[in-house]
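ESCALATION

Customer reports they have been waiting on this structure for their group meeting. Please prioritize. Original submission:
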Amino acid sequence: MGGYSSGRVGWRAKCENLLSIDVRRWARGGNLSRRYFGWQWTINGDRTCTIGVYTSDNHIELAYTKDGEQYRYPVRLTYTPCYLGGARRWFVCPSVRCQRRAAKLYLGSRYFACRRCYNLAYQSQCYSHHDRALTQAGKIRLKLDGEEGIAWPFPDKPKRMRWRTYERLRKRCEQHEGIANERLLNLAARWLE
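Update from on-call: job pushed to the front of the queue and completed.
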């Protein structure tokens, strides 16, 4: 007990902080129908990492360099039928012990693997009840073409939105902001003691 990455979700590495490849994105972009394509990640317009992908019907082969070492290995693809026709593509996790279907693979230490293999958590899993309420309120404000923070005035009703929908969203936003304000008042009361 108490080993690496054990304990609360908040202490686990986050999916959003690692480089990832998404089979759904590649399939939508038509990349999987080519024999070869390159993929790159950028941060603020600067290229951080690139990989080469060789494709065939039932697998892809990844080729990249990390920390001065070159890696090249296959990743199997599998398909599941869709209800209205067609098929959905999946990666089969290249980890020998895993072999699960996954839509995304993450570059952890040296190899791409699914999030279960690397014991990754999503950022939203680490939010407290109050943080989650504040995030939901911000999403509603952005949906109404307003500013995300509580400090800004509530946005006016957008054109072509029904009043009933606007009032429902406003009420839900006020509920979420009430939960966040309750937390703020509790913190202020503790500091004043």
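Sent to customer with the following note: Helices lie at 23-28, 129-143, 163-192.
Escalation resolved.
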